[in-house]
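Query structure, 171 tokens:
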């Protein structure tokens, strides 16, 4: 079935704005066929992180329900992005705080790579602030990329489990 959309009824709206308004109203529709939710498989590892801390969850819920159980923090081997003394801080020469965050993101990616190579998890979801997520992507190995269910570029590390479940369900 082909859906044909009419031109915007309001001449003040561009076609793009009209489509965005149409999408927004579809997202808030009460018609269940219009609602879209991410469904995580049972046993999915959910990693929630920023540049400083990591929270891991194991989904024990059976599809389509989420039941995120927080697991113990792993012992991470700290990766070191660079060596030698750093001079002035700039984009090309980041400060120590940024280097620590990048090292932490690389360590998390290495941990997830190890988990992906193992048999413990078949599906992995990563939730991280955009900067940390970008740094982690640099260190993804093919085994992790193959098991990656998705990524959410938001900082939820300090949020409740319920807020994380909600963010996953609407992603």
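Result returned for the query:
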């Amino acid at each position: 079935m082909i859906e044909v959309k009419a031109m915007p009824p309001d001449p003040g709206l561009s076609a793009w704005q009209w489509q965005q308004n149409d999408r927004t109203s579809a997202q808030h529709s009460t018609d269940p066929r219009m609602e879209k939710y991410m469904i995580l498989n049972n046993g999915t590892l959910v990693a929630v992180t920023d540049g400083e801390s990591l929270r891991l969850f194991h989904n024990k819920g059976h599809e389509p329900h989420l039941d995120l159980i927080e697991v113990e923090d792993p012992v991470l081997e700290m990766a070191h992005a660079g060596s030698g003394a750093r001079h002035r801080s700039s984009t090309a020469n980041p400060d120590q705080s940024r280097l620590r965050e990048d090292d932490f993101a690389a360590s998390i990616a290495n941990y997830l790579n190890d988990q992906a190579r193992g048999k413990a998890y078949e599906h992995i979801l990563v939730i991280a602030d955009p900067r940390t997520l970008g740094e982690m992507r640099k260190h993804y190995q093919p085994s992790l990329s193959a098991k990656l269910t998705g990524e959410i570029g938001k900082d939820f590390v300090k949020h409740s489990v319920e807020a994380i479940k909600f963010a996953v369900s609407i992603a």
